[in-house]
Amino acid sequence: MQENTLFLCIGHLSFFTTPEVRVSRRSSFVSAILFVLVLSSWTFGQEAWRSSRVDSGGGDLVSVHFTSSSTGWIAGDNGFLASTRDGGTTWTRVSLGITEDVNEIYFRNERDGYVVAGRKLFMTSDAGRTWRQITIFDQQEFGRNTPTFLSIRFGDKRRGLAIGSVISPENRVLESLVMRTDDGGSSWQRVLVPYKSELYHLGFSGNRRAWIAGDNGLIIHSRDGGLNWQIQQTGTREPLFAIEFRDSSYGFAVGREGTILRTESGGESWESIKPHFTDTLMRVAFTDDRNGWAVGHNGSVLRTSDHGRTWVREECEFDGHLYGLFTNRRMGWAVGKNGTIVQYTR
Q1: What is the pLDDT of residues 143-179, one digit of tens each?
Q2: 8 Å CB contact between 212 and 255
Q3: What is the DSSP string of 205-253?
Q4: How far apart, in whole angstroms, are the C-alpha atoms of residue 242 and residue 324?
């Protein structure tokens, strides 16, 4: 069990004045009082980001998920998996007995969780006390090629999807890969999709509508729980590393060089948002319909409070890459390079 050394990262504030404006002493006094009040309001209204580091064996952390304010999970390179029961004050390493990189950890409730690590899938039904490996594919179907899974999500307790790509022995992406379950993950069937791009991330709205984001600006959509898929026009060729839907209409996708896409029509049309930041964004998440966050390379933390129409950058002392993000109404967590964890609490 390890404890973490913390330091604070907070946003910054700038006031602009015009030198040509002359004010009386009384006006100056009133202005000073207003300045103090605004500054105090701003100081206590800002989320404070605390950055810490765990011993991840020198690897990066790429995924984080909390099932309550006290219980959470982080995962990353070389099979690293750890949990906390005290809100991140201490972390305890959990062994899966693997060396493959963990690409995602996800819980659909407090007890039922899933880990995808390369070609392997692990499940727990007792809140992570024990993990068991599940056979998700038949190797004979792929010959010398290797299925690799990057993301997993469930629409309800039975229906779920795991996605990624099929990799050649020369480490080339050959085709997109979608696997589907109707029994909570005990058995899986492949859904053939006519795409060749690597698939990075997926999301559900309800148990029937699902979206997948991938390479070359690809977004595909299903209305029947993942049985059939249609491509959506995004207007970009940049890789899209994450996708998030608040409901069947409002959705967001982020990717390389600061790409942010927004839709109010379930993806029938996508709008490109220009945040004037060029750092690659790896994850996006919303705490409610208005407020959302995106994280990415070079310590990028972006925030929106107007349904994703505009984004502002939150400055932070940590300037390494951030890969994973989890938020709810009370707290947010991001994880990244060399075992770094960044947290805020409202």
Answers
A1: 999 999 999 999 999 999 999 999 999 999 999 999 9
A2: no
A3: ETTTEEEEEEGGG-EEEESSTTSS-EEE--S--S-EEEEEESSSS-EEE
A4: 10
Contacting residues for 327 by C-beta, under 8 A, at least 6 apart = 285, 286, 287, 292, 293, 333
The Cβ of residue 190 has, within 10 Å, a number of other Cβ atoms equal to 15
Query: Residues 6 or more apart from 95 whose CB is under 8 A from it?
Result: 79, 81
Q: What is the pTM of this model?
A: 0.86
| Sign for the pseudo-dihedral over CA of 202, 218, 306, 31 | positive
Q: Tell me: the pLDDT tens digits for 88-125? A: 999 999 999 999 999 999 999 999 999 999 999 999 99
What distance in Å separates the CA atoms of residue 244 and residue 226, rounded to the nearest whole number? Answer: 16
| Helix H or strand E encompassing 39 | helix 25-45
Exposed, middle or buried, 195 (CB in 10 Å: 0-12/13-18/19+)?
buried
Per the CB < 8 A criterion, the answer to whether 168 and 177 are in contact is: no
Q: How many domains does the chain have?
A: 1
CA atoms within 13 A on the CB side of 80: 22
The CA distance from 321 to 340, in Å, is 9
Range of the domain at 80: 2-12+19-345
Distance CA(111)–CA(124), nearest Å, equals 7
CATH code of the domain covering residue 194 = 2.130.10.10
CB 260 within 8 A of CB 254: yes
